[in-house]
Hints:
The protein contains 14 helices and 16 strands. The strands form 2 sheets. An 8-stranded mixed beta sheet has the order 1-10-12-11-13-16-14-15, with helices on both faces. Strands 3-2-9-5-6-7-8-4 form an 8-stranded mixed beta sheet. Helix 1 packs antiparallel against helix 14 and helix 2 runs antiparallel to helix 9.
Amino acid sequence: MRTSFRRLTLGALVLLASAGAATAQTATSKIDSVVIRKIYDEALARGQSYENLRYLTTRIGGRLSGSPQAEQAVQWGKTVMEKMGLDRVYLQEVMVPHWVRGAKEKAQVKSSKGKALNLNVCALGGSIGTNGKLKAQVVEVQSLQELAALPAEKVKGKIVFFNRPMNPLYIETGRAYGEAGDQRRSGAIEAAKRGAVGALVRSLSLAHDDFPHTGTMSYHDQVTKVPAAAVSTNGADELSHLLKADPGLTVELEMSCQQLPEVKSYNVVGEIKGSKYPDEIITVGGHLDSWDLAQGAHDDGTGCTQSMEVLRLLKASGLRPERTIRAVLFMNEENGVRGGNKYAELAKAAGEKHLAAMESDGGGFTPRGFNIEADPATVRKVQQWQPLFAPYGSAEFSAGHAGTDIGPLKSQAKALIGYECDSQRYFDIHHTAADTFDKVNRRELELGGASMAALVYLLSKYGL
């Protein structure tokens, strides 16, 4: 009887301890819920992401690395963060490529019967120019593999037209973009290997319109460089249709783009020092550069203004982070990732300890959640906070790719985290002349910044 009583007593103590822990956890969760609500209230009532974005996009505009606008954006970002009263604001020097588009590109389809049709095209970033007009017959392929299988005489002296569309069946459009991107990145190289004189690439978009989508492409030192341009999806469909009726048609392409010597630029960094663990750093950022066709609003002006807003929201909510929080406006994500690489290089050289790095580079649309790039145990630890984000529609926490600029930190940070928003409209305007301020919704943008600030608050409080 005495032994049973002891077991009962011990069992009761375990239950009481468990109940006490659960009660404490519930109380903590309630406190966090109140703090997070305060962050969202501040963002929705007094958020500044939208007005900051208005200035960046309408007063400065497109910010291709090496351009005067990119330099203006650096000084703008530094000034905005200095006015926030942060503990520290500074620049990180980085050398960046300087490619210029030149005059507006021209392309015309000419049938063997003499009829002509203009195509909406734009040079791919990094392409050489045509040195006047380039006129050649066209061979259409759906993939790099199909090109490689063609007889040499089918390709030599022609322009290769890569016409594989993005897969419309994926719910997550970024997956479709990634799969179709090989023809844009490597198309010119593979075409030149087979003796082609140029490359045309179907724009990476699920929309059917007349906007050509630029984006980075590459060359190989051992392969002849040939001009490469993107053609709008409507133009690609029309060209494909015409080729079936007239395989001997030609395309005349004219581009004046060129690569200039590298120039000096900067990452812009703003920092709030941690109150308890100042040596543990949480970085949140977006890329300050953009392509030159438009204002670079969703790509990635929104990510920059949201990242700066994270710091403002924490301060305005009366929170003093336990760990150091940095907002970084990375330079040169679009055509080199020089800023992301430099930031990681300097962090490693300084022996800094990054707890986590977060990136916003998917547009400023309705928040959905976060992608977490970490070991399974760390992913699960971040996922335990999902219920706190459910009231705001941003509770999708999944393992996955976090972002390009924070990628170089992978070996230094315990977790890389990518802010995820609704992706259905992003690739309609991505890298086009349509990426303008008027396409951004104020509430969606401010809700995204609040979601990021809320997760940064939890990371700072609890660590990983």
